[in-house]
Amino acid sequence: MAQQDTDQQHAGVLPVDDEGFVIDTEDCEEREQAYRERGTSRPITVVGNPVLHKECKDVTEFDDELAGLVDDMFTSQRTAEGVGLAANQIGVDLKVFVYDCMDDEGTRHVGVVCNPKLVDLPAEKRRLDDSNEGCLSVPTAYAPLARPDYAEVTGQDEKGNPIKVRGTGYFARCLQHETDHLYGYLYIDRLSKRERKDALRQMAENEPRYPVVPND
Description:
Oligomer: single chain
Number of strands: 11
Largest sheet: 5 strands, antiparallel
Helix content: 25-40%
Number of helices: 5
Order of helices and strands: HHEHEEEEEEEEEHHE
Strand order of the largest sheet: 2-3-4-9-10
Distance between the termini: 54 Å
Structural class: alpha+beta
InterPro entries: Peptide_deformylase, Peptide_deformylase_sf
Keywords: Hydrolase, Iron, Metal-binding, Protein biosynthesis
Family: Belongs to the polypeptide deformylase family.
GO molecular function, one term: peptide deformylase activity
Radius of gyration: 17 Å
Strand content: 25-35%
């Protein structure tokens, strides 16, 4: 019986396909709702908050505290009507992000990645997409930003199991955007000075639609 419990503890949260990538497209509504119903919504930190501008700490404890954080992140993401959320966006200095994002084919993806690393892709897989990008931590601002339209991320799930996640189009952008967050980069850091200034102007001129943590 003890061995069975151990096996369950180390079982992956999501199944994987023949190439070892998580299958994050099944039971999306039920899984996201379960996280959300356990969680509490927290306000979003915005550009200028120090936690957003440094590399986060690795997740080393895959425990109830982490599970509670993940629940709160899904709840906060839904409150803010986002498609991805990194832990430092609710003020927590840990490398974990959650996502609830459609790809360009309209397929929904829901999952959790701890300690993510973007896979360096060969040139033939790097077709750039210069669509608009926004960020919950830069509320109401948008700017075009070229990113590869395919992305692969390695990391761990919330139980500590090794995982691989891949995405195309908008979902690929999400994976890159959220991984950037955990290494201290906002999307506006990848813009030209003029484009960054314009994004900050947009933010200053409008009110966010969700609770935020004001910077002192």
